Amino acid sequence: MNRRQSTEYIDADENGHGMLSCEPLGAKDKKVELGKKVTLLSGISVIVGTIIGAGIFISPKGILKYSGSVGMSLIVWVICGVLSLFGALSYAELGTCIKKSGGHYTYLLEAFGPHLAFIKLWTDLIAIRPAGMAVIGLAFGQYILEPFFMPCDTPPIAVKLITAVGLALVMYTNSMSVTWTARIQICFTLCKLVAISTIVAPGVYQFFKGETHNFENAFQRSNTDLSTLPLAFYSGMYAYAGWFYLNFVTEEIHNPERTVPLAICISMAIVTTCYVLVNVAYYTVMSVEELLDSEAVAVTFAKKLMGRFSLAVPGFVAMSCYGSMNGSLLVLSRTFLVASREGQLPEVYSMIHIRRNTPVAAIILLYPITVLQLFLGDIYSLLNFMSFLRWLSIGVVVLGLIYLRYTRPDLPRPFKVPIFIPVVFSLTCFFMVFLSLYSDPPNTGIGFAISLTGIPAYYIFVRFNRRPKWLQRILDSINRSLQILLEVVPAEK
Question: What is the pTM of this model?
Fold first, then answer.
């Protein structure tokens, strides 16, 4: 994956077709670069739109199951929201002092060097991100097809095919325009909030009408043991995951010193409020037993309270999933762009389309791997293997913030959080890692072993420079062919 400087660039002829040119980009009037297209509103939509996925509509019962009571489950939702805000504020400091896109990868690179950053990149590329995209896509496929097959089950192959089509459509939109991708993200985020409002409004109305019997003795515990309470927090923190995605597009944010902290605070307030109110609404209509037995809580809620309106719920869930896919691809592609720029992926992935100013190669990188896992792999097992790695890497990133405070005290910090915030959050992450080791050692061990394959991969693909000349010529030829095919060029600095 070592990069070689090339004097050849893709140019466009008068008909707009790509062709090779030896003229440097600086000679052109129009810059080929990623623009500052992410505003405060689109930043909020990225965070809210990626956090709120299908889970809050389908199965919020993990927290109730492990907390053991209605009252404790609501407290867990609030505490997890506050802890996630601590993590988001820590990332806000990192995003305003390290103004590079890439999120976790960039911060690990800046704090601890290329080895650890590559291991994170490697596990993201071969396992975590494709599996995560495939799971969101499968939920999208399942719920968009459900109305057409009721009351029968939807054929699995049909779900997978429509998932592949949905992923391709998201990839196409992201490749065509950053502006339109951001607008679509705003649109689908508003749809999610409307869907949540249709649950919250009648639920709160029922609450004020006096339907509060499920809240009586709210803290009376069931047979659940106190030792399971940490698992409730684990489920809650997973439900809030996604607050870090805005940091993946830092270079494209307008006025990041103001936009990043403000977008994060507003987004976390919106999400926490939505999660708590939705659960209150559920409890006004459904008993603890009914909620735990339901496979799709929002559907059960709608059937009990709104009758035929329940037919619209699958549509809302599908839109929610599509918005999550769109936002995830928007931000994840920037990690691959930055990694390519650092020499840890082939050079073509850092290049920008000559007219659309989008990182086309980085956007399509995940698609074939995701489709392969979608049709051949055991995606849910893979996510189980990797769940602890997410919190381990985030904990190390926030630990890196504390480390940078001491090793680089002169680094400009337009936004600086009190030191107790990253300390509390990093300890929370490491606790969840320990919880994974305790509760599921086989899957955790497999996930850890997969991540260790990044060590030899780093030396084979990045550090090893003595490639045969014939192999290097082939790699250069592939790189130039992709450059011509995708009409991409190195971004101007």
Answer: 0.84
